[in-house]
Design the sequence.
């Protein structure tokens, strides 16, 4: 369901999905904030949000491009990701608070993100979230951003040309910091392997270039993330 999220300068758009008690059990439920990829609030983002709700999580995806559309906002949002601070991070915190303040939420909140959103989910792990699931997210240039991070379950594709060696590097950094984690690199997957994007005739070309949906890897990552969130968030 489309919703509004109160933020410091007004409101931003978002999409929220609520578990069905007859499937997930009665409220309260743990929460999940879904951070969209560079394409913004697509049908795929809504599908992912709904799927987390089906699994028993009160789930909210904030639209980080609410203040002017994708073209105007993309550069600013990427800049904020690189800096590890800015309005986009404030928006994620606002989404977290909205869930935590609801009577049907336990107050334990995870964050999951894809591509651009994966980078945000990774950096946000050191904020007030209780678990983080970055999918093929950009690693921070300053790894001190991971100091004090919550438990992290991360997923990468070995065929991803943009993140070669990222899984091994993240594994090392999290181990050195004593952060509970599960990092996996899927040998047959590339970038965006868990996103069903409407690429149309470009699908074949995208896969050759190391991009695109890979069902088996995506489903295995779903199982890992849901199990990890159940352990660290409850539900």
Sequence:
């Amino acid at each position: 369901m489309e919703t509004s999220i109160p933020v410091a300068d007004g409101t931003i758009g978002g999409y929220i999905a609520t578990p069905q008690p007859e499937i997930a059990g009665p409220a309260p439920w743990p929460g999940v904030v879904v951070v969209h990829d560079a394409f913004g609030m697509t049908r795929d983002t809504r599908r992912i949000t709904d799927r987390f709700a089906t699994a028993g999580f009160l789930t909210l995806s904030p639209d980080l491009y609410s203040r002017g559309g994708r073209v105007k906002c993309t550069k600013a949002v990427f800049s904020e990701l690189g800096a590890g601070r800015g309005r986009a991070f404030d928006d994620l915190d606002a989404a977290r608070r909205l869930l935590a303040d609801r009577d049907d939420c336990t107050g334990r909140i995870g964050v999951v993100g894809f591509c651009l959103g994966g980078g945000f989910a990774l950096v946000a792990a050191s904020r007030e979230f209780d678990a983080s699931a970055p999918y093929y997210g950009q690693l921070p240039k300053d790894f001190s951003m991971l100091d004090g991070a919550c438990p992290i379950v991360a997923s990468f594709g070995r065929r991803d040309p943009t993140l070669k060696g990222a899984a091994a590097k993240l594994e090392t950094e999290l181990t050195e910091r004593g952060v509970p984690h599960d990092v996996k690199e899927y040998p047959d997957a590339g970038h965006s392997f868990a996103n069903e994007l409407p690429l149309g005739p470009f699908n074949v070309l995208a896969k050759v270039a190391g991009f695109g949906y890979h069902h088996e890897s995506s489903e295995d990552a779903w199982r890992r993330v849901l199990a990890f969130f159940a352990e660290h968030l409850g539900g």
